[in-house]
Design brief:
The structure is a single chain. By secondary structure, the chain is α/β, with parallel strands linked by helices. The chain folds into two domains: about 1-155, Leucine Aminopeptidase, subunit E, domain 1, CATH 3.40.220; about 165-485, Zn peptidases (Aminopeptidase). The protein is built from 14 helices and 19 strands. The chain has helices at about 25-30, 40-50, 85-95, 115-130, 160-180, 190-205, 210-215, 220-225, 280-295, 345-355, 370-375, 390-400, 435-445, 480-485; strands at about 1-5, 15-25, 60, 70-75, 105-110, 150-155, 205-210, 235-240, 250-260, 300-315, 325, 335, 360-365, 380-385, 405, 425, 450-455, 460-465, 475. Helix 9 (about 280-295) links the parallel strand 9 and strand 10. Helix 12 crosses helix 14. The longest helix has 22 residues, at about 160-180. It is elongated, with a radius of gyration of 24 Å. The two termini are about 30 Å apart. The model has no long low-confidence stretch (mean pLDDT about 95). The structure holds ligand BES, magnesium ion and zinc ion. The site of zinc ion has 5 residues, from strand 9.
Length: about 500
């Protein structure tokens, strides 16, 4: 489903569902442009139904005049209170009313309230992403009747350039949702690697998949310890986007790629949501989704590395024991006092590998800790970095995407919680501040001179309920933030 821009306005548009945003206030004036397309006493009808343009309000009209079959008025609330998020919500709400129609969906909003690029991007993303539905696992998927095209009507021609980013970004988010939503028996480390290889082919990226033997040769003892308890081999994935011409910046993304996390011998029991732990590859889904988007957008002068150390955390006779001591590829020894803190073990070796590439910045994304969910809930990811510039860049990128992101402290004094009696470090500290000690653990595997940020997406990777913009289930959280961050780099 592609999003296009119709600069010429409503009069020359033809499509089947029209979503029209209305601010609280003078309805008559705002509805003026509709006179040409809608016949009949619209205002009288609205008054009868008490529609005043409040945020969250919507009203549908079935029209008899072809080609427009349906008009959906969506309230935007008071203009002085309207934020870009209000545009997103209104677009998503309007889009829901288009379900059942497979023609073209047109959207008219008072665009000039915001700068037109941001408005176009926000509305295009919200509309397309709110119409996503995953029917892959139904034996008889009902035919999905949703619009084939989305037209943003009445925006200036100049906003067209932004759509060259929006469509690839949405495709990246959709891929991430499919990867996260796929059950662990259909998305294994091998399947994740196959997806990366497929994207490399489609988008002309370089790809390497390191097999278990190669990871052994690189002495990735932390990552391999996690993989030992599974019948499935680990797959270490490395995709590279190289721009045409000169390279001025080299960025690296690292994603946690546990296609299932049983907890290992520290088995997930009780309310620890073992049945949801297919989403433990959410970080890798962001990384691979972003690779797809970046491979399509092809930003200039920036090289991007996409890295995933994928495996399963399972139990068998050769699984890691609680108490085992292993050695990561930078030589550090780790006492595994909890086999359920496996993500940081896989990331340790992935980060060492990434630092050897000497990138200008590294961002890792991981469904790392339940503690982060307790701290920030399921709409906000936490992030940690010592680098204020990187922090600002990521915060702006997330704000721009409408994705919740909050900076957390790297409290160095908490490192004492990771002290081991025997090894250099242990993999878990006390329960309190668990997402902070996790970040401190990762930091042990990052070269100090390289700007690095860690994003814990354990909360927003998954939504129990729909919130309009996101359908329930896999959200694809992070792809928009990360692609914005890459595309807005100053070189
Ligand atoms: N994948 C989990 C983190 C997680 C938990 C994500 C709940 C989303 C919801 C991670 O591997 C894990 O199990 N972390 C442990 C760490 C603990 C043993 C220190 C946790 O958060 O309980
Ligand atoms: Mg775990
Ligand atoms: Zn995990």
């Amino acid at each position: 489903m592609q999003v296009s821009l119709i600069a010429s306005g409503l009069n020359s548009w033809s499509g089947s569902v029209l979503v029209f945003g209305v601010l609280e206030g003078n309805l008559e004036e705002q509805l003026h442009p509709l006179e040409e397309v809608v016949k009949g006493p619209l205002i009288k009808n609205l008054n009868q139904q008490n529609f005043i343009g409040k945020a969250g309000e919507s009203i549908n009209f079935q029209l008899l005049e072809p080609p427009i079959q349906k008009l959906v008025l969506v309230g935007l609330g008071k203009p002085e209170k309207l934020l870009l998020e209000g545009f997103r919500n209104a677009a998503a709400l309007g889009a829901q009313s288009s379900i059942g129609n497979d023609g073209t969906l047109g959207i008219v909003l008072p665009w000039n309230i915001f700068d037109c690029m941001s408005a176009a991007k926000a509305v295009a993303e919200a509309t397309r992403l709110s119409l996503f539905k995953d029917t892959r696992f139904l034996s008889k998927p009902e035919e999905l009747k949703i619009p084939k095209r989305i037209d943003l009507i009445g925006l200036p021609e100049s906003a067209k350039t932004i759509l060259q980013e929006v469509n690839p970004i949405c495709a990246g988010v959709e891929l991430a949702r499919e990867l996260v939503g796929a059950p662990p028996n259909s998305l294994t480390p091998q399947d994740l690697a196959n997806t990366a290889i497929q994207i490399a082919k489609e988008k002309n990226l370089e790809v390497t998949v390191l097999e278990k033997g190669e990871c052994e040769a690189r002495k990735m003892g932390a990552y391999l310890a996690v993989a030992k308890g599974s019948d499935l081999d680990p797959k270490f994935i490395h995709l590279i986007y190289r721009p045409k011409g000169t390279v001025k910046k080299r960025l690296a993304l690292v994603g946690k790629g546990l296609t299932f996390d049983s907890g290992g011998y520290n088995l997930k029991v009780g309310s620890s949501q073992i049945d949801l732990m297919k989403f433990d590859m959410g970080g890798s889904a962001v990384v691979i989704g972003a690779a797809k988007a970046i491979g399509e957008i092809r930003p200039e002068e920036i090289e991007v590395h996409f890295i995933v150390a994928s495996c399963e955390n399972m139990i068998n006779g050769s699984a890691v024991h609680p108490g085992d001591i292993v050695q990561a590829s930078n030589g550090k020894t780790i006492e595994i006092n909890n086999t359920d803190a496996e993500g940081r073990l896989t990331l340790a070796d992935a980060l060492v590998y990434t630092c050897e590439l000497k990138p200008d910045a590294i961002v890792d994304l991981a469904t790392l800790t339940g503690a982060c969910v307790i701290a920030l809930g399921d709409e906000i990811a936490g992030f940690w970095t010592d680098n204020n510039q990187l922090a600002e860049e990521l915060q702006n990128a997330a704000n721009n995407a409408g994705e919740g992101l909050w900076r957390m402290p790297i409290q160095e004094t908490y490192k004492k919680g990771l002290k081991s009696m025997l090894a250099d470090i242990k993999n878990t500290g006390p329960r309190a501040g668990g997402s902070i000690t996790a970040a401190l653990f990762l930091k042990e595997f990052v070269t100090e001179s390289i700007p690095w940020a860690h994003i814990d997406i354990a909360g927003p990777v998954w939504a129990e309920k729909t919130n309009g913009l996101n359908p329930a289930g896999a959200t694809g959280y992070g792809v928009r933030t990360i692609v914005n961050w890459i595309c807005n780099q100053k070189t």
